Amino acid sequence: MPESTVSGTVGGVEIKMSTGKLATLADGAVLVQVGETEVLVTATAGRGLRPGVDFFPLTVDCEERMYAAGKIPGSFFRREGRPTDRATLTCRLIDRPLRPSFRAGFRSETHVVATILSVDEENQYDLIALNGASAALSVSPIPFEGPIGGVRLALIDGDWVPFPSFEQVDASVFEMVVAGTRNDDGEIDINMVEAGASTDALRRIADGAAPSDEDTVARGLEESKEYIAGMIDLQLELVAKVGDIPEVEFPVVVDYDDETYAKVEGAVKDLSNIVSIADKKERRAAEDAGRAQVLESLGLTDEQPDEMRIAGNAFKSLLKRAMRDRVVNDGVRLDGRKAEEIRSLSAEVGVVSRTHGTGLFQRGETQVLSVATLGMLRMEQMLDTISMEDSKRYMHHYNFPPFSTGETGFMRGPKRREIGHGTLAEKAVLPAVPTAEDFPYAIRVVSDVLTSNGSTSMASVCGSSLALMDAGVPMIAPIGGIAMGLIAHDDGFVTLTDILGAEDALGDMDFKVAGTADVITALQLDTKIKGLPAAVLTGALDQARKARLEVLAAMNKALAEPRAELNRFAPRIESVEIPKDKIGEIIGPKGKMIREIEEATGATLDIEDEGLVIIGAADGESLQAAKQMVIDIAFPPEVELGTEYDGEVVNITKFGAFINILPGRDGLLHISKIGGSRRIEKVEDELALGDKIKVVVREVDDRGKVSLDMAGAPADSGDEPKRERSDSSGGNGGGRGQDGDGGGDGDRGERKRKPRQSRDSGDRAPKADRGPKVDSTAKAGRTVVSFEDEFDG
């Protein structure tokens, strides 16, 4: 196949697609380039059927190559290992709109691989891979009924910006990826949405930014259709340029034939009894009994596996039709609810002892336990990816054990679904989590699904919000979530609030919406049909908001706002901001001072380059002791003339001894002042390192250098010996250490932390002579103490 290339501008962005040069043995291969981000996507299908498979075996893989960002992998083996979470999420992003777009009955094993060849700092590769996957399938003989177009939109100053750069996404309040296809009437239908608010969206909205409410999101869905159409047209142009695509006769699987369907329908006694059973276990048992009765009446046995499979599929189809007819014609669902009715709700906090915070949320038979754990910022997750992000402070992990559905199975780490659901819940709650400056903790929430019957991801959103507030995390607002379903029929659509697991399986849409009472923080849409009109989704958004308010009301009964104090088992962490030139004194020579503070108090200290000292301790007393020691070193109190101090010899020179009289404050006891009226030849004859002596401040010069006398010595006659000049003379620790190292910036040991990219590392430039500034309104355990860069004395 000769190389074919097309390019065009969609939403102000230049997009280039080419095929025929790379990976020519794949059924379809397309290289997509946007800016300097390049993704190669291939599509390959087997020519036969995998034995015993009664589903469409589509696999999507995303291969992040570290060379794409000019990096060498940081693992021991120095090569890529298991997929990163971002790569896994990209696989799901591609799979969800593609899966319902293949020809009915196509069951050949199909593999789509997106290889990330190059990334710039402008364009995200996931959306490029999505459009490339559709293009690769479109230029292949695989029976794909596309193309699918995708666009990312960012809400900036109330306007939706298409194909935003990383910088624009950071400046936005909300972003969403929307995918869709063109229907027979030439209109764009939407079949996938993935959306979430930015980290500080709620704070920006509180400051006057346009909110991501239902009306705004609905407008974004409508605007996305223009850009989706542009991406589809570009792919069609590439298909036309390729010309004749070889045809392949793929086997077609028929779930059941008309004759078998009629036989099963005649053998079924009464499906209305099954679809009216509310309890999941009882309904499942009734379904199994009904299926067995039909197979027996048809005389089918285990020796006829193909016939049993076909008859079983026909029974499932009849059951699905009965359920849908009951909803459409009678307005009654599987468990007897109406379309907009939500199941019974309950919420609890503090259900597990000795954890930092817990939330137990239950909606009908769906039950999720979320547990929050707080730690030092050093516990944030380090990321070794091709992304610009190198750490993550808030982590949410979702677990879906087999017992939650009453089944057995293997538990070998998180699967793609668990990673996807956990990330969705993390995305929903993150905008309400306080910043590291306001709350200097690393935060991890684990949501364990204990019972599953529909929308466990949204239950984990609710449980996470409760657990965080129970731990005392100052959440901006509680976050609730709800899942919507949909049944398409000849006359239109019926939207279902709070879908059951069976309604998800038998319905046509899974639409999850999470947020506060007024703002959407996360959104996810999947369909089993090729697409939905934007107007249907707009109506579902309004219906979801009513349910979300009901969920939030139930959560508020358990805990309406964050607890005023941190949980008694949570560590106490405070931040102290010091001048940068004092960092070395806090660390001390070879880390001596910071070790002394930690050993004396039991606290843990982290020091960042910009001068932020983060102190953590198991209790408030230890924390306050460590904080005071840091303050005393960075901002020592004024030295008073004539005052007697208990000092310690910290350095000895030929002209005298340096005596530590206050934390971070040394003075010089000249050799002539040591022996009183006696003249001594060597300081070592009288003093040794570590000796405790009493001294009196005799003089403090204009540079802050302190001169001392021995306590009890006769008054100064005024005949002062001439002071020897030395680079190591003077106070403030300048002469500490036998090696002349005064604990300056040159020796910080391994205690210094790399600053997080999320923190503003700009010049703080405080005014002089202001001293410590304490936020007196801050709650216990979350005090932030800051200081000016210069302090006289």
Share in helix: 25-40%
The spatial strand order of the largest sheet comes to 8-7-9-10-21-20-18-19
- Number of helices, where a helix is a run of at least 4 consecutive DSSP H or I residues: 16
Domains (count): 5
Q: What this model shows, in words?
A:
The chain has 793 residues and is an alpha+beta fold. It has five domains: 4-242, Ribosomal Protein S5, domain 2 (2-Layer Sandwich); 258-330, Arc Repressor Mutant, subunit A; 345-558, GHMP Kinase, N-terminal domain (Ribosomal Protein S5, domain 2), CATH 3.30.230; 572-636 and 745-787, K Homology domain, type 1 (Ribosomal Protein S8, Chain: A, domain 1); 644-710, OB fold (Dihydrolipoamide Acetyltransferase, E2P) (Beta Barrel). The chain contains 16 helices and 32 strands. It starts with a strand and ends in a 6-residue tail after the last strand.
